[in-house]
Amino acid sequence: MQTPSTVVWPELVVWDVGNVIVRWDPRTLYSRIFPDPVERDRFLRDVCTMAWHGPTDCGVTFDDNCAALSARHPEHEAAIWAWKHRWSEMFSGPIPETEAAIAALKARGVRQYALTNMSHETEDATFAMSPSFARLDGRIVSGREGMMKPDAAIFRLTCARFGFSPEEALFVDDSATNIAAARALGFQTHHFTDPAALRPALEGFGLL
To answer: Is the pTM of this model over 0.85?
Structure first.
């Protein structure tokens, strides 16, 4: 256990984006395409899976990914291409508690960065969804870097590009896997599961 004299307080925050700053869920879109929840869940489990989507977060284009999947599932071609053409419908707006926290941290002069698994093709539209993004000091987008969380390389790249050590940063993400990867590298972490718990956590780390 750390004693008060050995506690190292974080000096900056590294934010995940999806389901931390803005809400993202493919079900938001596909509930409109498949009114039957069983049919929707089967499609997302067996066709447009997160494993299939993953390469777009690492630089593969939506066109290439959707075309390859449509060739395997021609009966679902329209629904597969909706993943590209109706991408924005997967979002349901910013998370107010995070927006408020980012504004409060900015007012205190705390450096803040985004580290997100995201296609380079959707980057600009996503980062226009909240004024909070303009308050950040920089961002790392996996689709531009050709690497993605939880790969240690993208965490190290973030540190190198923005000039800080892992121990100086608080990393906030909704993925337990990403949290574990960051913690293994020395980041201080907050697993984002409840928006109401965010500000108390930031206060506990001495950031607010």
So the answer is: yes
